[in-house]
Amino acid sequence: MAKIHKIGILTSGGDAPGMNAAIRAVTRAAICNGFQPVGIYRGYEGLMNGEFKEFSTENVSGIIGLGGTILKTARSKEFMTEEGKARAYEQMQKAGIQALVVIGGNGSLTGAMDFAREYDVCCIGLPGTIDNDLYGTDSTIGYDTTMNTIMECVDRIRDTAQSHERIFFVEVMGRDAGFLAQNSAIACGAEAAIVPEDMTRADQLARFMEHGIRKSKRSCIVIVSESPKCGALYYADRVRKEFPQFDVRVSILGHLQRGGSPTAHDRILASRTGVGAIEAIIQGQRNVMVGIRNNEIVYVPLSEAIRQDKPFDKKLFKVLDELSI
Ligand code: F6P
Questions:
Q1: DSSP 8-class letter at 169
Q2: Rounded to whole angstroms, what are the CA distances from 141 to 30, 246, 269, 281?
Q3: Confidence band of 199 (pLDDT split at 50, 70, 90)
Q4: CA 166 to CA 222: how far, in whole Å?
Q5: Which atom of ligand 1 is nearest to the CA of 106?
Q6: How far is the CA of 14 from the centre of ligand 1 (A)?
Q7: Distances (CA, A) of 227 to 22, 64, 173, 268
Q8: Into which CATH architecture does domain 6-142+262-307 fall?
Q9: Which atom of ligand 1 is nearest to the CA of 174?
């Protein structure tokens, strides 16, 4: 493997609060350790098109508190193809970039893994996604900020729910993972959460209508994980048909969940894992994601990090069930 001098940094997939803090950390840690950081714009699209800029420390000044990503991001279908990866490698060779730090979620780290398998490139992943669905790290960059945003929104929705004595189905993001829904439900004091990880149990709506609504409770908040078929609208429709005595409303929080200034937790996570990425390169690690588990930096093989079955703590069901009586 060629000696590493230039390290490319890119953000890919859905933006997440804290990505800028991660870009700043990787850039500055790279400079401190004698590497030349190179910002790559528009994720893998920019990698294939050679949209590179050599960064100095000033390029990342004043960005730690900004949401989104100064490098822009994209979901690239072309990079998944053989031709796409070949073009990306050619551009890296031309620019003399030997290593990549990829900040993104499941799809983005899968792309990094495939690329590193086919070409002589060192790829280091940072867990950048609001969904918290990457294996081997306690939390992902952006997850805590999003949870706080959801909590603020639901606290407001609760005012209307209580005043009008309504059932509100609030839909949150998470793709195929219920971490956001389950934990934000606990944080908001919601009456129930409907999450993909619980699909094997009995009909979640029936259970909630049976146990979750006490006679004395005339308003309720149910947090629902997004889903093309069984999202908040689906459950609201069912309640209207099956329990017409209730006044039901839906609130889909959508992309407002992804924006905003990152919390202290996400800034620290991004900063620590960013420094960890450069340490990984110095140690000669390849094709790992940098995470934090039990407050310690860990290096997780990319193939592990992207596993689709990140353990969901089933005890959280009990916490919500018992506290929402
Ligand atoms: O992966 C992050 C995420 O926000 C998911 O929770 C959601 O399903 C998806 O991205 C939405 O993506 P887009 O902004 O491309 O519609």
A1: E
A2: 20, 39, 6, 20
A3: confident
A4: 11
A5: 1
A6: 6
A7: 29, 32, 9, 31
A8: 3-Layer(aba) Sandwich (3.40)
A9: 6
Residues with CB under 6 A from ligand 1: 14, 105, 129-131, 173-175, 226, 258
Q: How many residues does the chain have?
A: 325
Give the count of alpha carbons within 13 A of 123, CB side only. 28
Rounded Cα distance, 209 and 317, in Å: 16
Which pLDDT belongs to residue 308? 80
User: What is the residue extent of each domain of the chain?
Assistant: 6-142+262-307, 143-258
pLDDT tens digits, one per residue of 246-261:
999 999 999 999 999 9
Q: CATH homologous superfamily for 143-258?
A: Phosphofructokinase domain (3.40.50.460)
Determine the Cα–Cα distance for residues 19 and 67; give it in Å rounded to an integer: 7
| Ligand 1 atom closest to the CA of 257, numbered from 1 | 4
Range of lowest pLDDT (59-63, 204-208, 213-217): 213-217
Pairing of β 6-11 and β 97-104: parallel
Residue nearest to atom 8 of ligand 1 (CA): 175
Tens digit of each residue's pLDDT (9 = 90 or more) over 134-170: 999 999 999 999 999 999 999 999 999 999 999 999 9
Measure 227 CA to ligand 1 centroid, in angstroms. 11
